[in-house]
Design brief:
Helix content is 34%, strand content 22%. By secondary structure, the chain is α+β, with helices and mostly antiparallel strands. The protein has a domain of 159 residues.
């Protein structure tokens, strides 16, 4: 079993290079927390959901800026990506991560079985525990072992390991995301209308209808049924 490796992301285009629009993908990401240099906020970017129409992706993560934390799927805009690049954004690679369509479905099932959960615990159930559980089927957090007690207490006091309190903005980064309701405008419409399990309809993804239809006929029909007509 190969160890987990990290690649520092230096530009938006570099991150976009990990996205494969001809297959569904989960891209394991982590961003540094400014007031906790030894800790990163972990999340999973759904690479096939990049939409030039909304200028955003969908991500799944343990959002920790609401009381008790909450496991959510929500929009992640280009502005937020670029803010996180400035903080220190990394893509993690591991042979245990989903590689096939069946493995993707099993991983997404693990997310859905815990979606909406509000039981964040820095020591036993943090954002890294959750991300690893989705990606590998086993919940663990390598970084928590390296935190001193004072750092754990600091994180608990602030109520999150994902940014400062207050409202999020389009440039606050993933660590500033609160909950799906905190997104606004087109990004909110995107996150509320789509499921990260599926390919996006062509009007949202920027692909031609025929191309998407050839890629995945069944998912294409399924997602079209979920999108309001005014969005297509």
């Amino acid at each position: 079993m190969s160890p987990t490796t990290e690649t520092r992301i230096c530009s938006f285009d570099q991150l976009l290079g990990y996205c494969k629009h001809d297959r569904r993908s989960m891209i394991r990401c982590a961003v540094r927390i400014p007031y906790m240099p030894k800790y990163k906020h972990h999340y999973i970017l759904l690479g096939h959901t990049w939409s030039p129409y909304f200028n955003s992706f969908l991500i799944i993560h343990y959002s920790t800026e609401i009381q008790g934390g909450k496991i959510v799927e929500q929009s992640y805009t280009r502005g937020q990506v670029e803010a996180d690049i400035m903080k220190g954004l990394y893509v993690l690679n591991d042979s245990r991560y989903p590689q096939t369509e069946d493995e993707f479905d099993r991983a997404y099932d693990r997310f859905e079985e815990r979606k909406g959960e509000q039981a964040f615990n820095i020591s036993t159930n943090n954002c890294e525990h959750f991300a690893n559980y989705v990606m590998t089927g086993r919940a663990f957090s390598d970084q928590i072992e390296g935190l001193e007690l004072t750092q754990k207490l600091l994180a608990f006091t602030f109520g999150s390991l994902g940014g400062s309190s207050g409202s999020s903005s389009s440039c606050s980064g993933v660590s500033g995301i609160l909950s799906p309701s905190s997104s606004s405008g087109m990004s909110q419409s995107y996150s509320s209308s789509c499921s990260g399990r599926n390919f996006l309809p062509p009007s949202l993804s920027g692909f031609k209808r025929d191309d998407i239809y050839k890629i995945d006929k069944q998912n294409y029909i399924h997602i079209l049924e979920q999108i309001p007509l005014k969005s297509i």
